[in-house]
Design goal:
245 residues, three-stranded antiparallel beta sheet, binds manganese (III) ion
Length: 245
């Protein structure tokens, strides 16, 4: 490869030409390469049993998540002019990502972000596991009651064809909705904030549930970490003082 410097300059100019200035463009570049790492699980591999078995957690976290991170790092390394954006910034600005790595960032950046959120969204099985406080009120206001929200989430996840995610998301006005995304697409890329997501790729459940995705979707509520989801909702309402908190 020759003309490396020129390529770097052209890469920077591409942002200007697109009229899309990435949000991180003005931040100080303290590292020369953006490198992402797999966060450690906040609990033991077997902590979610019997809802999610130990081997599934080992393969899912150590192998699948690591593969997304490695591929994301390889893609980002091709464009040092991007600086050191966070994975959120990358996913929120896909249009500003150089075309030759945009699909890789979408797939593997999404895989990294979605799984990082997923691990934090779970905890050991809890009896009568349900949200409280402002989040419970918001779910009731948007879906009728908590059970109706759960049912909408389960149905959306069960009906998603192929691999993807089912989400509880909030838009900029605080409106809550259930949605699905295919593959590793993130709600961040369409301007929505994920509060809770469940992975419905077969690798997330196949060892214990085989083809019974619906059983996995129903059992999964036992391990949802509602205090963490409530924290995400509180951050959102802190940014939007007009929302009920
Ligand atoms: Mn997965």
């Amino acid at each position: 490869m020759r003309c490396n410097r020129r390529q770097v300059l052209l890469g920077g100019l591409a942002f200007v030409a697109l009229g899309v200035k990435p949000a991180w463009a003005d931040t100080q570049q303290v590292e020369l390469t953006a490198r992402f790492t797999v966060p450690p699980l906040p609990y033991a591999y077997d902590a979610l049993e019997p809802v999610i078995d130990r081997r599934t957690m080992m393969f899912h976290h150590d192998k699948h998540h690591t593969a997304y991170v490695n591929a994301l790092n390889a893609a980002i390394a091709k464009h040092p002019e991007l600086g050191t954006p966070s994975v959120e910034q990358l996913l929120q600005n896909l249009a500003a990502i150089p075309a030759d790595i945009r699909t890789a960032v979408r797939n593997h950046g999404g895989g990294h972000y979605n799984h990082s959120l997923f691990w934090e969204s779970m905890r050991p099985p809890q009896p009568n596991n349900r949200p409280t406080g402002a989040l419970e009120k918001a779910l009731t206001a948007h879906f009728g009651d908590f059970s109706s929200f759960q049912e909408a989430f389960i149905q959306a996840g069960a009906q998603l064809f192929g691999s993807g995610w089912v989400w509880l998301v909030a838009d900029k006005t605080g409106r809550l909705q259930v949605m699905t995304t295919p593959n590793q697409d993130s709600p961040l890329s369409v301007g929505l904030t994920p509060l809770l997501g469940n992975d419905v790729w077969e690798h997330a459940y196949y060892l214990s549930y085989q083809n019974r995705r619906l059983d996995y979707l129903k059992a999964w509520w036992q391990v949802v970490n509602w205090p963490v989801v409530a924290q995400r909702y509180a951050l959102l309402t802190a940014d939007q003082p007009s929302l009920p908190s």
